[in-house]
UniProtKB/TrEMBL annotation:
It comes from the Eukaryota. GO terms for molecular function: zinc ion binding. The keyword Disulfide bond does not apply. The lineage of its organism: Eukaryota, Metazoa, Chordata, Craniata, Vertebrata. It is found in: Early endosome. This is WD repeat and FYVE domain containing 2. Its main location: other. Pfam families: FYVE, WD40. Transmembrane segments: none annotated. InterPro entries: WD40/YVTN_repeat-like_dom_sf, WD40_PAC1, WD40_repeat_CS, WD40_repeat_dom_sf, WD40_rpt, WDFY1/WDFY2, Znf_FYVE, Znf_FYVE-rel. WD repeats lie at residues 20-51, 182-215, 225-259.
Length: 424
């Protein structure tokens, strides 16, 4: 039997499909409900809302629920329609265990394990059984955690924090062991994204960069992606199109082609004089005296890593295959070696026109949601629909369905809801 060849979905410039502007406060997290024209949002105004698209084309807050405190994060599982919530603070508890003191920063529901992983301002990383609400384990992190991912197959948790490092923990049912830490950022880790197929971890940072940690390759390769001018706020991997989508606080959205092979940037070399013209650098008093020359400032070529003076590295170039989508300093000989073909961008750049606080990507429909500091949620289409359009439910079906919140569990600062879809 001939294998069915699936055409690769074509990508295009994200097209704005809809704006949701009725929120009274900033939406901290929002997710697209797959196969429905719906969005779930949690906001600073303490509400959880489900927005469904009406015939008018506008999203309408079909139901909402008010929480005792504002919701800082959530995790939605489309299969079970389970919504796990992290709270700003408060003492809602039905059991005596308090997993966090203060704001819950990230919450992650893992269906396969029936686990809820969470981190808080108190620097505790905990995991709970989502069925019983029992706390299974706890780990003290070195700094406030802002990114959390989990690999179901190997039970590794990736924990990114404000010190700029990513800690890798192996979780057991009631304990965990420290595997290693990834250090590469010079600013806070702000977002993490795990691709379980390629076994690649992406980390975004306040230092404007993204690092791709290739775990599956087994060679310790870490590739930097430089395409943002501001703090990276979100990272999502689009498996159908093999793209990484990143966004930053200045509203920039970058869509990276991950089908290309990129190289690691070289280590910067140490030298007391320019490795091209041999003029001394300013701390090299002996050579300055001997050769009666003025010391120069040291720079580094981003392509070869050599220590060079300003005169020998006056030119700039993009080096997309090293992750540099913006022009960077290169030495004269490297500048000559870079061809126009080498300069072809491997990413596309888009403006969301609001300061992004949160981003979510829904892979089956190719929809990208951004929530902004302007209190607006925007939904964009990132690829041309092929067969997906046929799978979509007509709107009339949606109108005959009702949604309700069934609060199934509360423990410590996390609240679980099962969002039921009742056929009308
Ligand atoms: Zn020089
Ligand atoms: Zn060079």
């Amino acid at each position: 039997m001939a294998a069915e060849i699936q055409p690769k979905p074509q990508t295009r410039t994200p097209v704005l499909l809809n704006k949701i502007e009725a929120s009274q406060d900033v939406v901290n997290t929002a997710v697209i409900i797959p196969k429905e024209d719906g969005v779930i949002s949690v906001s600073e105004d303490r509400t959880i809302r489900i927005w469904l698209k009406r015939d008018s084309g506008q999203y309408w807050p079909s139901i909402y629920h008010t929480m005792p405190d504002s919701c800082s994060c959530m995790s939605f599982n489309p299969e079970t329609r389970r919504l796990s919530m992290g709270m700003e603070n408060g003492t809602i508890s039905v059991s005596d265990c308090f997993s966090h003191q203060g704001r819950v920063t990230v919450v992650l529901f893992v269906l396969e394990m029936e686990w809820v992983l969470s981190t808080g301002q108190d620097k505790n990383f905990t995991w709970h059984c989502s069925e019983s609400g029992t706390q299974l384990g706890l780990y003290r992190t070195t700094a406030w955690v802002s990114g959390l991912q989990f690999d179901v197959e190997t039970r590794h948790a990736f924990v990114g924090d404000y010190s700029g490092q990513v800690t890798i923990l192996k979780l057991e049912l009631d304990s965990c062991s420290l595997v290693t830490t990834f250090k590469g950022h010079t600013g806070n880790v702000t977002a993490l994204c795990w691709d379980p197929v390629q076994r690649v971890l992406f980390s975004g940072s306040a230092d404007h960069s993204i690092i791709m940690w290739d775990i599956g390759g087994g060679k310790g390769t870490a590739i930097e992606l430089q395409g943002h001018n501001e703090k990276v706020q979100g990272l999502c991997y689009a498996p159908h199109t093999r793209q990484l989508i990143s966004c930053s606080s200045d509203g920039g959205i970058v869509i990276w082609n991950m089908d290309v092979t990129r190289q690691e940037t070289p280590e910067w070399l140490d030298s007391d004089s320019c490795q091209k013209c041999e003029q001394p650098f300013f701390w090299n008093f002996k050579q300055m005296w001997d050769s009666k020359k003025i010391g120069l400032r040291q720079h580094h070529c981003r392509k070869c890593g050599q220590a060079v003076c300003g005169k020998c590295s006056a030119k700039r170039s993009t080096i997309p295959l090293m992750g540099f989508e913006f022009e960077v300093r290169v030495c004269d000989s490297c500048h000559e070696s870079i061809t126009d073909e080498d300069r072809a961008p491997t990413a596309t750049f888009h403006d969301s026109k609001h300061s992004i606080v949160y981003m979510h990507y829904e892979p089956t429909m190719g929809w990208l949601l951004t929530s902004g500091a302007d209190k607006v949620v925007k939904v964009r289409q990132t690829r041309c629909l092929l067969r997906q359009r046929l799978d979509r439910q007509p709107n009339s079906d949606l109108l005959s369905t009702n949604w309700s919140f069934d609060q199934s569990q509360i423990f410590s600062h996390q609240i679980f809801f099962r969002v039921e879809l009742i056929e009308g």
